[in-house]
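dumping this here so i dont lose it
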């Protein structure tokens, strides 16, 4: 599967200290026939298998959910991340994200599906031994069995390693006896196998494979939730549950590695799903705005509606560009790997990127849904229209896969940790940014030169701020959560804006180049404006940071771009298509 990119994978976080080129990135316009077929297959599945029974699925029907999963298995959609020798189709991570993106419009079923294909399968793919893989993966790929992932516990919240569930080896040395409970477990109502985390001897955090029907395994009632009501969510109770020691997943005491690695891919998938949801909302908003008349004209003609639509399009373009840039890098790094260890090392490379793509992706989607509801007015608040369902279903995304607050701290925290370990040279460029001068000229296409210069200077502003925080707070920097979060917001903004710019640059000479350039400019200059606020607040807090404000502001100087006009033009592009312009 080709996405027409340079074959050299970039180092995680390197985008902050290097200038990447259009040839480095994967973008949807250059997907090959096989990737496009993956998209069409998934779209067809949603249209033919989900839409006719959508309301029944939203009402939570165990049997129907399992039947539809089985159909997805027959079509190869459950096995995208599973090796062929184990019953899967083993496509690229780009293909996996394409499936996730296009499954986003399946409502609550997308949760059922994503658990099955993600956190319920990947731990066995990457950490299971040969026996465990052959026992479970073929039937997970074809949908004969359903999986669930049991990590979170009552009272633990985001501190997932603070587990009270225990595992004690019996006298015979044949089974571990598990006791404890897990909450918010998706698919629990009808799952056949559970990936359960517990502490052996009270300290060795370990994963286990627990089959449904095992004595002592029981469940609470279905949770009454704000949204995703068609997905099963239950308390899982373990009372003297005997698990054969052969079903310990991975190494004893290394369960945290399984938990974190699984969440990393889950974060990227959540962002891909956000792209799919955002595209649907843009179409809904544009169509309604052009049909709904107020004061003698369609509301689509009003400036404030155009502003919403234009921003929605730009945010979606930037997020989509970032997601597939990221999957392209991951695919290149995975290309020559064979062992589980090599694959895990490749995945581990992009910890910074997984964290920020999750929080910015979920927030972009929530904002787009919120604005779509606003465009619908009172009708958006009515259950007669689909917007309120999207609104309720989407809210969980900012909590799933680690809260957005946790992921902000992980973004900047991982950057600083990698710098301290020498995996990325942060302090050298940071010190250079503190004494250097803004870039005033650059070798770049004239249409995008101003945006590229602004984005490169934003990188310098981020390096200045992050370096100042590291030097000012020293070992206590991680306790300065507000500062860490503002740095993370800037990091996310610069990656998305650069991704949008590189994609637009790659499209120069193609039919939609002017539209891509417009959207890249909107997102980039808006990111500059927002980052100016983030960095200023952070530097005011950092010891001696106010002395650096003049240099910081020199990097983020007034760009003079009329964003209002650009958003009006972007809205016009959407209206002409009655949809997001860059559908593949």
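and the seq i came up w/
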């Amino acid at each position: 599967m080709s996405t027409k990119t340079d074959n050299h994978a970039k180092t995680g976080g390197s985008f902050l200290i290097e200038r990447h080129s259009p040839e480095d990135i994967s973008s949807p316009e250059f997907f090959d026939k096989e990737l496009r077929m993956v998209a069409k297959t998934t779209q067809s599945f949603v249209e033919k298998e989900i839409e006719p029974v959508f309301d029944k699925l939203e009402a939570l029907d165990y049997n129907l959910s399992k039947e539809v999963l089985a159909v997805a298995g027959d079509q190869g959609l459950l096995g995208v991340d599973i090796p062929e020798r184990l019953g899967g189709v083993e496509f690229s991570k780009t293909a996996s994200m394409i499936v996730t993106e296009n499954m986003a419009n399946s409502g609550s079923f997308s949760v059922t599906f994503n658990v099955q294909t993600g956190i319920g399968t990947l731990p066995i793919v990457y950490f299971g031994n040969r026996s465990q893989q052959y026992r479970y993966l073929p039937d997970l790929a074809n949908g004969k069995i359903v999986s669930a992932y049991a990590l979170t516990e009552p009272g633990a919240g985001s501190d997932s390693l603070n587990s009270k569930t225990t595992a004690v080896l019996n006298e015979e040395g044949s089974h571990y006896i598990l006791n404890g409970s897990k909450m918010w477990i998706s698919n629990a109502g009808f799952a056949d196998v559970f990936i359960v985390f517990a502490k052996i001897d009270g300290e060795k955090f370990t994963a286990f494979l627990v089959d449904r029907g095992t004595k002592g395994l029981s469940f609470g009632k279905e949770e009454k939730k704000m949204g995703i009501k068609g997905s099963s969510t239950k308390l899982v109770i373990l009372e003297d549950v005997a698990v054969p020691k052969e079903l310990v997943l991975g190494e004893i005491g290394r369960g945290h590695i399984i938990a974190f690695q699984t969440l990393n891919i889950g974060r990227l998938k959540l962002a891909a799903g956000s792209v799919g949801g955002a595209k649907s909302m843009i179409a809904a908003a544009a169509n309604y705005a052009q049909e709904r008349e107020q004061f003698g004209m369609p509301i689509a003609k009003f400036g404030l509606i155009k502003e919403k639509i234009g921003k929605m399009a730009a945010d979606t373009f930037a997020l989509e560009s970032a997601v597939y840039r990221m999957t392209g890098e991951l695919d290149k790094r995975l290309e020559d790997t064979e062992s589980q260890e090599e694959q895990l090392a490749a995945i581990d490379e992009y910890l910074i990127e997984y964290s920020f793509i999750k929080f910015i992706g979920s927030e972009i989607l929530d904002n787009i849904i919120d604005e779509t509801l606003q465009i619908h007015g009172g009708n958006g608040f009515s259950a007669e229209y689909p917007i309120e369902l999207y609104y309720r279903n989407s809210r969980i995304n900012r909590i799933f896969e680690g809260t957005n607050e946790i992921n902000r701290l992980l973004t900047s925290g991982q950057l600083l940790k990698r710098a301290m370990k020498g995996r990325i040279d942060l302090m050298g460029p940071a010190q250079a940014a503190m004494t250097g001068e803004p870039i005033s000229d650059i070798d770049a296409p004239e249409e995008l030169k101003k945006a590229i210069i602004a984005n490169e200077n934003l990188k310098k502003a981020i390096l200045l701020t992050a370096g100042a925080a590291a030097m000012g707070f020293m070992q206590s920097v991680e306790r300065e959560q507000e500062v860490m979060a503002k740095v993370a917001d800037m990091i996310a903004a610069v990656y998305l804006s650069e991704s949008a710019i590189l994609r637009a640059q790659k499209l120069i000479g193609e039919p939609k180049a002017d539209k891509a350039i417009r959207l890249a400019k909107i997102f980039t200059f808006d990111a500059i404006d927002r980052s100016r606020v983030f960095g200023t607040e952070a530097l005011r807090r950092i010891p001696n940071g106010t002395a650096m404000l003049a240099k910081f502001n020199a990097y983020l100087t007034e760009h003079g771009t009329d964003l209002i006009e650009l958003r009006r033009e972007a809205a016009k592009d959407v209206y002409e298509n009655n949809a997001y312009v860059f559908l593949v």
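The chain has a mean pLDDT of 95.
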